[in-house]
Write a structure and sequence with these properties.
The chain is mainly α and about 270 residues long. The protein is about 65% helix and about 0% strand. It has helices spanning about 10-30, 30-45, 50-65, 65-80, 90-100, 105-115, 130-140, 145-155, 165-175, 200-215, 220-230, 240-265, and strands at about 160, 195-200. The protein is globular, with a radius of gyration of 24 Å.
């Protein structure tokens, strides 16, 4: 049957039929792909997050469907689909890790971010080396965000522990005379190699940034432009710096246009 998607009645019938097809494929034919699509349908069309959460969880648990593991990880982290829930970061991590082991790049990205970030919930034990493995796997699967994040980690390095100055130390520092221009900082302010879990490495940072840019991450392209302009991790090249700058600006324009289109589409509601 051909549907006229300009007619509200046809759109409603089409949407309802989709739900029937996904339920049949999931519950009768036992197809994990159909179950995941049913979760997406419940989430995106019906806005029934509680049912969507249950479908994603069962599709992950029963079929080992990687994308559903990732989605249920998101729901668990945010407490979505459970009234009054503040989120369960540890459960989220378990499902992200399972999704990553099943080769979902987004699940690997989120597993890695939970382990390397200092701002994650206290329920998660920070483990930078393991997080780095997850992020690298995600980047190897062409996840642009993971590649960009890895580039940033190698630009600044990751220290084992960053001590916060005490109030007394901060006051003493403020009272001390300013260092003469060009004077080297005191040795105490310079962390040693052994203080780092991930060493600063501009060559690696460049490689990850280049891959992220090739995967159309505009921030990576902007960083790549700066690296070429300064000669950081790669031989200085003003022509390449300008090329990647232009590429980043073009991507920025594309994002703005997409946001404008999205803003317009949000005014068009689904029929009840």
């Amino acid at each position: 049957m051909a549907y006229d998607l300009k007619k509200e009645s046809d759109v409603k019938e089409y949407v309802d039929k989709l739900g029937v097809e996904y339920r049949f494929g999931c519950y009768s034919e036992k197809k994990p792909e159909a179950c995941h699509l049913l979760g997406d349908y419940l989430e995106g069309i019906k806005k029934d997050f509680e049912k969507a959460s249950k479908v994603y969880k069962s599709t992950c648990d029963d079929y080992g469907y990687a994308k559903s593991c990732y989605k249920y990880g998101n729901y668990s982290f945010l407490g979505k689909g459970k009234s009054g829930s503040k989120g369960e970061p540890r459960v989220a991590y378990q499902y992200y890790e399972k999704g990553c082991n099943l080769n979902d790049s987004d699940a690997c990205l989120h597993s890695g971010l939970l382990l390397v970030s200092r701002s994650m919930p206290k329920e998660i034990d920070r483990d930078v080396p393991k997080g780095l493995e997850f992020l690298t796997k995600s980047c190897d699967m062409n996840n642009a965000i993971a590649c960009f994040y890895l580039s940033g980690m190698h630009i600044s390095g990751v220290q084992k522990k960053q001590e916060q100055p005490t109030a007394a130390a901060a006051a003493a520092s403020a009272a001390a005379p300013a260092e003469e221009a060009g004077a080297l900082p005191s040795p105490k302010s310079q962390p040693k190699e052994s203080d780092y879990i991930v060493l600063k490495d501009m060559k690696k940072a460049f490689q990850f940034a280049r891959k992220a840019c090739e995967l159309r991450n505009m921030y990576a392209c902007a960083n790549l432009s700066q690296m070429y302009a300064r000669g950081d991790g790669i031989e200085k090249n003003e022509k390449e710096a300008e090329r990647y700058k232009k590429m980043a600006l073009e991507m920025q324009d594309e994002v703005k246009k997409q946001q404008e289109t999205l803003g317009f589409q949000q005014g068009v509601g689904m029929p009840n």
